[in-house]
Amino acid sequence: MNSSIKNSMVVTAFFLAVAFWGSRSDAQELESLQISFARFSPQEYVRPYGPNAPWNIPVKGIAKHPESDLWVDRLWRLSTAHHPGNFNLGGFDDYSYPVYVADEATIQAPVKSRHPDWGNLHGQCVPWNPAWKPAKGSDGQVIILDPRTGREWNLWQVKFDGKTLFVGNGNLVDGDYRTKEDGFRSSRGCGIQYLAMLTRPEEIMQGAIRHALSMPTKNPNSNLFLPPATKTDGDNFGIPEGVPEGMRFALNVTDEEIETWIEGLPTEIGELTRYSARVIAVALRDYGWIITDNSGGAFFQFESNETAGEKWKALGLDKREICGKQYPRDLLDGLLTKERIYAVVPSDQYPNTIRDHELNAEQSAPVDADKPRHGALAFDQMKSGGRSNEAQCSAVGIESHPSATANSRMTAASFCGGMVVRQAAE
User: How far is the CA of 13 from the CAs of 389, 407, 418, in angstroms?
Assistant: First the structure.
């Protein structure tokens, strides 16, 4: 797609979403947000991996796991740190992934691995820039992407001495990250490459996260893993009762419940954070999350501040302490309740008919294994200047989706913003 057309579609759709927000002050606030995001060119971002990668498929139509209550209870009690149900936004400063682009490399650095048999880069060279920094935690991870060829490098415990890259494990992931739809056994605990499920700021700026989120947890299952995982490190770090790596969960929550939660957040967090919180909440409902790795607690992985810190700040997701809580770490408190969480079946049991050709912008209640999902909330008309949503979307060349709720601010924003993302990827 021509970049000028794509840019125009994203901007036009955003301002259509502005019109849906209701009050003049809300619309002005969203317009201000769009202006602040423009310097990061979020419209250029395209979701990685193919539409049928399991993590890129919405939970709509996927059967609820027959033992959902059991696994939710174990997730709640056994997978978190400090207290049950303590699910955080994390990794910004330490245990997530900085993402670098090969075009910005200045040298080809030789790789020396402490565990040559774990990966495929020992004795090979990778594009590198001495200014690049790994994540600050003991895992010291790095992702390098080559958008021209689709190559993805995953590096663990990285140290650079000025000449050589020393790693605990290093891999050039097979296939093309732009279209790949399966895992890679040599990468992280669940055997799925690092970039998969990583939340990046451009997605939130666009108005929709269109994939399951990555959640490392404490105490993964020591004996079991589930597709799309290709392995587990639970045999070294887990317990027999733990939640298996590869298991997928989602939230059964309505637009109204999301809005109630948003309204209950401290006023001091500001509209930037509220905007981001809506996008995240809708993604946890519509795509859910997958257990990906062993960790000291349960948290959703967002791109490291090493490469995304300025963008996270623009989204109100920089580190702050408000009313005795630390943000964004504690942002999801009150949204993820035990009663709202459910587990779905493994990806090898997804219906063959599921495709990511529609956004899952409707209210998403879990389905039982023997019952199809139905009864979407009707989306009759979102009015702006007397024009229906169908007419507005048609004006920018986007097909309309019949199932957004008229009273949900975030549904409106992700409704048009998300469709543009899909168009840009086709």
Answer: 11, 18, 9
Tokens of 358: 């529609």
Give the number of other CB atoms < 10 A from CB of residue 347. Answer: 23
Closest listed residue to residue 245, CA positions, set 198, 188, 203: 188
The span from the CA of 308 to the CA of 363, in Å, is 31
Distance of CA 331 to the CA centre of its chain: 15
Instruction: Using the Cα atoms of residue 142, residue 135, residue 196 and residue 13 in order, give the sign of their dihedral.
Output: negative
C-alpha pair distances (Å), 32 with each of 119, 262, 309: 46, 20, 20
Tell me which residue of 77, 59, 69, 99 sits closest to 298, measured CA to CA. Answer: 77
* Full DSSP string of 238-284: -BTTSPPBT-EEEE---HHHHHHHHHTS-GGGHHHHHHHHHHHHHHH
Written as one letter, the residue type at 69 is D
Element containing residue 310 per DSSP (H, E)? helix 305-314
Q: What is the pLDDT of residues 124-169, one digit of tens each?
A: 999 999 999 999 989 999 999 999 999 999 999 999 999 999 999 9
Q: Is 10 helix (H, G, I), strand (E, B) or coil?
A: helix
Q: What's the confidence (pLDDT) of residue 91? A: 83
| Residue pLDDT, tens place only, 264-295 | 999 999 999 999 999 999 999 999 999 999 99
Work out the angle at residue 183's Cα, subtended by the Cα atoms of residues 182 and 184, and round it to the nearest 5 degrees.
135
**Pairing between strand 165-167 and 107-113?**
parallel
Please give the backbone phi and psi of residue 116, each rounded to the nearest 5 degrees, phi first: -55, -30
Which amino acid, 340? R
Residue type, 301: Q
Pairwise CA distance, residues 157 & 230, whole Å: 22
Judged against a pLDDT cut of 70, whether residue 397 lies above it is answered with no
> How many whole angstroms separate alpha carbon 106 and alpha carbon 96?
24
